[in-house]
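Check the record.
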Amino acid sequence: AALVLSVLSQESGVNGVIGANIGKCNYNTPWNNKAGTVMSNSQKKNFLTIMSELGLDPNKTPVSCPIPRDGSYGGAMGLSQFMPNTWMGYRKRVANTIGVSFASPFTEEHAIVGTMHYLKDADKRCESVTWSSNTALNAEKVWRCDAAKYYSGLGRTTANGLLKYMNPKSSYGYRVAKRALEYAEDIRFLAL
């Protein structure tokens, strides 16, 4: 729970409000990149499929704008900021978990369950990486790894391939894991 909350805070939180930033662009907003739009051509087919399944207007549905330091493309959707290709791999699993016909990355409950499933998958892959013999440090590094995979994709398979997103202290994984540890302590205290 703490890790999911921390990822959601990082992905769409503004001033402590999760979901305050779900995107200010549209998939076809002109952008200076190879595709000429916010969303890469490799994501558009699945985005349009998702829009059709959900009965949403793709021209009016907000997605993330590109973050120049991280790449030339945006297009992440909803509270959890799933990319369309990633959501396609989770939508049926989320729908089965919740008991709906079609899961939507724009519905909070669905997005949160999708984040949970993604992080569980990341955790399985991160636990297989050898970090250290220090169990406490190992747990923190696994959370850093989970968060790094959330940000950069499940395909990165080595510690070295993930270090950019896990270290230094300004990295996505480091910030998310640090916040998750704080949330976990708050949750532990509230459960007393």
